[in-house]
Amino acid sequence: MTRNSTQRGTVPPHQFAEALVSVLRATLPNSWLVTTEPDSRHDFTVRGVAPDGTTAVFAVQVKSRIEPRDVSRIAAAARDRHSGALVVASPFVSPMTRRRLAEEGIGWFDLMGNLRLMIDRPSVFIDRQGADRGPERDPADRRLKSLRGTGSARVVLDLCAEALPIGVRELAERAEVGAATSARVLELLAREAVLDRGAQGQVTAVRKQALIRRWTQDYGLTRSNALSSVIDPRGLGTVLEKLRESRQRYVITGSAAAHAYLPSGVVPVAPLMTLVVYAENPAVLMRAANLRETSRGANMLLGSPFDDLVYARSRTVDGLTYADPAQVVADLLTGPGRAPEEAEQLLATLAAEDAGWAA
After folding, report:
1. pTM
2. What domains lie within the chain, and their CATH numbers?
């Protein structure tokens, strides 16, 4: 029987069964009959009967905790034991874990409001978004949980840019962080299944797209950088010309950077509406370019970056300085308007040039 041992403080399977049935009864039409029953291969089975008698059945496995690196093993075991729909239930299923489960065709349910159920016959698809943050964690679990902070950011961006394989200490030196920071970040990223490590602990492969997506759970364009809304009534072309003449350090990120990195002939998914610029001295740049802060109608976001690393990893294209593509992707994924769509287009371009960006 493939049940978790019920440890002190964990939620027993029967409570998950009650909670899941309650959610399904509230989600499906009132005419459906939803029940649970024991399952010798899983923790329990849910059966939904429609008014015409057609039946939807799926198995549920309860996990006291599930991390992205667990998903491949769960999927392989499920294929050996069960050919129908499977849902993994846990107190919390993180965004990265959900992404991996979706890739394997497995649904999920957690006590934070997240539910995904996919059944082919009869056709049932439920996708409910809940919290992206879990409940209070065990204080005895001292593993790194977050990629907030400059140390984590330096490791993440270095892993996207430099050659592999690489060990903990070499990565720490390259990213200019402490060895302890390097080790803890790599341990977290291994749990999140965004990189592979060899027998000696060295990083042998990085799934760069997954890595940046995981970073953006803790990093955001406007919440991690000191940015102000700015307007230039003359238009963004004037600002770009001023930047070409500027003698201070700056980098362009966001939509303008995405446009610069697209291959010739590729039409951007969105026009340039907002220019995002990190500057060493934003006040000086504002005076030089005759910009002013505004509460509405802004066509720029201007300010200081979370770390001077953005300057060190910049690139020059046609006389303008742009942030590293990995930084641009992160800023777009967490940016306003259609920025996330632009991130997806840039990711497709990066993946065509480097297989490491494909996943």
Report:
1. 0.81
2. 13-128 (3.40.1350), 150-215 (1.10.10.10), 221-357 (3.30.460)
